C-alpha cells in the first residue's frame, strides 16, 4: 500500500512565493513616473503630518471664521467618541476582514493555516485604525484647545486599534454580535456622563495620561485576541463585507458613488426582510408619491438624519460668522433634500420603460425632497433671515433636482492625457451636475449676507 505525503507550505512561504512571482511577471513601470508619484505622495503625507504636529492647539480660536468658538475639553471627547462610533460602523460594514474569491479558493480552502494567512491583514487594519484614530485625536485637540495635545491623540489612536480589533473579534465569532450594540450603548452613556458633568460645572480635561494607559491595555488585549481568533472566520463571515468593499473600489475608480450607496441600501433593505404589501392609490402621480412615502416610513433613518442636520446648523450658529452660517444653511437644506431624493435618483431614466416622460415621473418624486427642504428651512430661518433662507431653499431644491435627474455616467467622453495620468474631463462634468446651481446660490447668499 502506497501513501502519498506532501509538505504543506506555511503562510509566510506562500507570501514570499507570491511576491517573487509578482516581481518576475509584473509589467515594467516607468521608473521616472513611479519616482514622481512616490515623491508627491510622500511630500503630501509629510506636509499634512508636519502641519498637524507643529500647529498650536488653540489655532481655531485665532480665526475670524469661528468668532463664537469657545474651546472646551468636552468638544474634544465628543470628537473622539464620534470618530470611534463612525469607525466601528465602517469596520463592521466592510468586514473588516475582506478576502478576494481567488484567495478563498487557492489559499484559505487548503490545509494552509488560515489564522497565519489572515494575521498580516489584521495587523494592517490595526495600523490603519491607529492612523485614522491619531488624526481624529489631533483634530479633537484642536477643537478642545488641549495642551499638551499628545495624550488625547495617543488615546484616540489606541482607541482606533481597539475598534478595529473589536470588529475583527466579532467577525471571527469570538465575541457575539450583540456586543456591538452594547459597545454603542456604553459609548452613549459615556458621552452623556461627560455632557452632564460639563453642564453641572465639573472640571473636565483631555490631557491626562491615565486614560491612555487604560485604553492601551484594552487595545493590546483586543489586538492579541483578534490575531488569535481570526482563523475562526468562515467564508461567509469573510464575504459579508466583500460586496461593499468592491463597490467602494469601483465607486472610487469610476467616480460613481451611487454604486456604493446602492449596495449599502440593498443590504439595509435585506435586513428589513419583508413587509405587508400595500394597495397603491389610483393615478400614477399619487402612486409614486405613496411609494416614496413608504420608502421612508419603512426606513425612518432619513428623519433622524434631518433632525441631526437641524441640530448641527443650530450648533454652527453659535460658532461661525453670519456668512459662514448662511453657507451652512445652504448645505443643510441641500443635504435634507438629497436624503429624501432617493426615489428620484432610483427612478431616473425609467420614463421610456413606463411609456411616459421622465418629467412625469420626476415631478411626483420631488414632493418629499421639497417638503424636507421646507422643514429644514423653517427650522433654521430664524438664524439667517428669510431672504437668505429663501435663496437657500430655491438653490438647494433646484440643485437636488438637477443631481437626481441626471443620466447614468458615460465613460466614453473626453479624457486628457497629462504627465500624472488621465483626466476624465467629460466624466467630471457629468458628476458636477447640480454643483453649479449650489455655487450660484452660494454667491447670491454671499451678496445678501
Protein described:
Helix content is 72%, strand content 1%. The chain is built from 21 helices and two strands. The chain has helices at 11-25, 31-54, 73-94, 101-108, 114-144, 150-171, 178-199, 210-229, 235-239, 242-254, 257-272, 284-298, 301-317, 322-339, 342-346, 351-354, 358-365, 367-384, 386-404, 425-431, 435-448; strands spanning 416-418, 421-423. The chain has a two-stranded antiparallel sheet with strand order 1-2. α14 (322-339) runs parallel beside α19 (386-404). The model is unreliable at 1-5 (pLDDT under 50).
Concise account of the structure shown:
By secondary structure, this protein is mainly alpha-helical.
What order do the helices and strands come in, and which of them pair?
Layout: H1 11-25, H2 31-54, H3 73-94, H4 101-108, H5 114-144, H6 150-171, H7 178-199, H8 210-229, H9 235-239, H10 242-254, H11 257-272, H12 284-298, H13 301-317, H14 322-339, H15 342-346, H16 351-354, H17 358-365, H18 367-384, H19 386-404, E1 416-418, E2 421-423, H20 425-431, H21 435-448
Antiparallel strand pairs: 1-2
Helix pairs in contact: 3-5, 3-6, 3-7, 5-6, 5-8, 6-8, 10-11, 12-17, 13-14, 13-18, 14-18, 14-19, 14-21, 18-19, 19-21
The structural class is mainly alpha
Figure out the total of helices.
21
Q: Total number of β-strand segments?
A: 2
* SS strand fraction: under 5%
Biggest pleated sheet: 2 strands, antiparallel
Give the SSE order as H and E letters: HHHHHHHHHHHHHHHHHHHEEHH
* Averaged pLDDT: 80
Distance between the ends: 92 Å
Helix share bin: over 70%
Biggest sheet: strands side by side, in what order? 1-2
Cα radius of gyration in angstroms: 26 Å
**Shape category:** globular
Low-pLDDT segments, ≥5 res: 1-5
